[in-house]
Please model this.
Amino acid sequence: ETGVTQTPRHLVMGMTNKKSLKCEQHLGHNAMYWYKQSAKKPLELMFVYSLEERVENNSVPSRFSPECPNSSHLFLHLHTLQPEDSALYLCASSQGTGSNSPLHFGNGTRLTVT
Amino acid sequence: AQTVTQSQPEMSVQEAETVTLSCTYDTSESNYYLFWYKQPPSRQMILVIRQEAYKQQNATENRFSVNFQKAAKSFSLKISDSQLGDTAMYFCAFMKPSRGTSYGKLTFGQGTILTVHP
Model:
């Protein structure tokens, strides 16, 4: 069983819908991340939260809104998405920095925007 | 900015044989960390092996080993005695130390799809 759990596993939404992706980590880590994985492209870092504070926002459109209510939970709120936003969204967590603090990933949410 | 390049979109190998996946990177940093992650059809990214740039000795984890060439900025992964369960997409990743922070950002390559045939 993974220490990082993402729900839902699959999500299909229309361009006018509002939905949220959820991530929960059971590892006691202090940093959490959202990555976007599109076909034939490297994983793209979207957001980083460290100690529940957003520390990185890599020019992500405002239709993606992250929320980190505590160190164990991370959400990605979605609204007015575009078809090109269809991708696998991966959540990860880590403790500290460096090679002794690798990222641990969840199974991802496969998002399809119709 | 750092970049990571995996020049082999797809590779295949027969069960029990050895395969090497290539990775090169570009950075001006002298100290950093390198990783190989595996993503099977279950989609979960799993850490395979890690390497600190300041260590000259190549990392080894059971059947997995790396050939780290710092001057050439090359970090290849060798899988020995390939097993069917090794079938997955493999990602090379770079992490720059973040001084004064408690998190690390990974920059990934495009990935290599490895298929192990029986």
Observations:
- Chain B has a mean pLDDT of 93.
- The two ends of chain B are 41 Å apart (CA to CA).
